[in-house]
Amino acid sequence: MSIKKGHLAEDLAKTYLLENNFIIIDRNFYSRFGEIDLIATKNAVLHFVEVKSGSGFDPIYNMTKSKLSKIIKTSQVYMKKNKLDMAYSFDLIIIRDDMVEFLENITI
To answer: What is the mean pLDDT of the segment spanning 68-85?
Structure first.
């Protein structure tokens, strides 16, 4: 997927979160372990959101155990860097042909 398509998918995901009363606090947070696409809060819970999109296949299959592990490690860096001690969730937003599916608190 091109960088442009990735940013468009992240923009759709961001809009979805905002429309559902999330507050976006960061985007494309990088650590040496990886990247988190969106970081948001809602109801005192911190949400680390990965965005996957595609057409002609189910983009959910791009979410792997390895990718989730990188997100978890990167989230720990984020929380330590920002001195946060709060409830958190690892979430996935799937974009299929401009349709948004939100999967909260994912595990693999």
So the answer is: 96
pLDDT of 108 higher than 70: no
On the CB side of 46, CA atoms within 13 Å amount to 17
How far CA 16 is from CA of 21, 23, 73, in Å, comes to 9, 11, 25
pLDDT score recorded for residue 3: 66
Q: Are strands 34-42 and 45-54 parallel, antiparallel or unpaired?
A: antiparallel
Using alpha carbons, list the distances in angstroms from residue 84 to 36, 76, 80: 16, 10, 6
- Provide the CATH topology of domain 3-103: Trna Endonuclease; Chain: A, domain 1 (3.40.1350)
Burial class, 2, CB count within 10 angstroms (exposed 0-12 / middle 13-18 / buried 19+): exposed
- 91-108: burial string, b at 16+ Cβ within 10 Å, e else: bbbbbeeeebeeeeebee
pTM exceeding 0.90: yes
- Give φ, ψ of 38 to 5 degrees: -135, 145
